[in-house]
Design goal:
- The chain is an alpha/beta fold and 423 residues long.
- The protein has 17 helices and 11 strands.
- The strands form 3 sheets. It has a 6-stranded parallel beta sheet with strand order 3-2-1-4-5-6, with helices on both faces. It has a 3-stranded antiparallel beta sheet with strand order 7-8-9.
- Helix 1 crosses helix 7 (173-193) and helix 6 crosses helix 8.
- The chain starts with 8 loop residues before the first strand and ends in a 6-residue tail after the last helix.
- 37% of the residues are buried.
- The mean pLDDT is 96.
Length: 423
């Protein structure tokens, strides 16, 4: 049960979601993550979307478990000295400040590399350095829009035909996971070279990486002028760019989200069903759905034919699903080998005991607050199970961290008096 990153020290100069999601994963995998926070203020999410006044918000808690916190004013000479000492003792330094902020304070890649050639420098910015938007401050929806997700998400007609961002954090946590991959690769590279490297991850790139099938669609559209798997085909004319596609599966198979029994009062009484292309699999699905005649009808029994009558198929399948609960539909179709799944609301997910059993959902006992539920480490390792610990109180580890890099009680008292660290 040895932690994969045991012995790795990380200086975490990140805030909100994209950076903290990355560094929390490093902490879960065993790294010692020291979070640098503004004196008296801390990470902005400590005070956002509060459910209990006077306590750290759940937003902060869910992104900063297993870390240590030090309050530090890195704009002061003493604060810069402290941060420099921390970097000299670190394996990884991560920042997601606004463009140019770390550089202005003397902690650019070149600066950090001179301080500690073995230190890996991880940075998150909205856009790449060569982008015309390089100096734009990016938030979650900005990244989703610039990375192609919003333009291709949502309904394709009517008043709701507008660019739509996903409820998933494609711009923030997704970027953090992309940076994580780069940092872990850099650690392996350092084992061979003895030297740290610069790992830059833009939010635009991270979103675009998840939209590669939409780039695929653009190339197809450029070549043949239509996208047969989208709901617009064959009745509507395609323009020059990939349109929004509602709930289609995204590939050549026919996937859609269907109403189930109770949809009038339950916003999540829906099920997603995929009709596969293979003749045998399609025939089995038709039988399970009470439409065995579709398997032999030329109007339905080939993938190309089905693409031309999608609305008719959607209507026919929903005639079946709307008379059954989503659980009944999944049980019946699942046994018939049909790819399908229920639409689960967050209230249902939060009560799913199987997710607690495997560690996907974890109940954490947070100082001052009491218990709260968070999402645990998604990868499951047979040789290591992370213990999800509470998020740090603001500045709780300041003294301990400073002593570890050589400062005395008298030094710390002076830092406090000069507002270099917490009061």
């Amino acid at each position: 049960m040895t932690a994969p990153l045991q012995g790795i020290k990380v200086i975490d100069w990140t805030q909100v979601q994209s950076g903290p999601s990355c560094t929390q994963m490093l902490a879960w995998l065993g790294a010692d993550v020291i979070k640098i926070e503004r004196v008296g203020v801390g990470d902005p999410t400590r005070d956002e979307l509060l459910d209990k006044p006077g306590l750290d918000g759940i937003y902060f808690l869910q992104l900063n478990c297993n870390k240590r916190s030090i309050e530090l004013n890195a704009k002061t000479p003493e604060g810069k000295e402290i941060l420099t000492k921390l970097i000299k003792s670190a394996d990884i330094f991560v920042e997601n400040l606004h463009p140019g902020a770390a550089d202005e304070l003397g902690f650019s890649w070149d600066d950090v590399h001179k301080m500690n050639p073995r230190c890996i420098y991880g940075t998150i910015k909205g856009f790449n350095e060569d982008s015309p938007y390089a100096n734009v401050k990016a938030f979650e929806p900005v990244a989703q829009c610039a990375g192609g997700a919003a333009a291709t998400t949502g309904w394709w007609d009517g008043e709701y035909n507008v660019p739509t961002q996903s409820g998933a954090a494609l711009g923030d946590s997704n970027t953090g996971m992309h940076l994580l991959i780069g940092l872990l690769a850099a650690l392996l590279q350092r084992d061979k070279t003895g030297e740290g490297c610069y790992v830059q991850q833009s939010m635009q790139d991270a979103v675009l990486n998840l939209c590669r099938i939409k780039l695929r669609d653009q190339l197809i559209l450029d070549n043949i002028g239509v996208l047969t798997h989208l709901p617009e085909y064959p009745d509507e004319k395609f323009g020059k760019t990939v349109p929004r596609a509602g709930n289609v599966e995204g590939g050549q198979v026919l996937g859609w989200c269907y109403k189930c029994k109770g949809w009038e009062t339950d916003p999540n009484a829906y099920v997603y069903i995929v009709l596969q292309n293979e003749a045998k699999a399609f025939a089995e699905a038709c039988t399970a759905l009470g439409k065995p005649e579709w398997a032999t009808d030329p109007k339905f029994n080939t993938p190309a034919a089905r693409q031309k009558v999608k609305p008719e198929i959607w209507k026919g399948v929903e005639e079946y699903t709307i008379t059954r609960t989503k659980e009944e539909v999944v049980d019946i179709l699942g046994k018939a080998g049909v790819p399908c799944g229920p639409v689960l609301g967050m209230d249902e997910i939060a009560k799913d005991q199987s997710l607690y059993k495997c560690g996907t959902l974890v109940e954490v006992d947070q100082p001052k607050r009491g218990k709260f539920v968070t999402i645990g480490c998604p990868p499951k390792l047979s040789s290591f199970t992370p213990e999800v610990k509470p998020a740090p109180l603001l500045g709780a580890d300041t003294d301990a961290v400073l002593k570890e890099i050589g400062y005395t009680d008298a030094d710390i008292a002076k830092f406090r008096a000069d507002h270099v660290v917490c009061k």
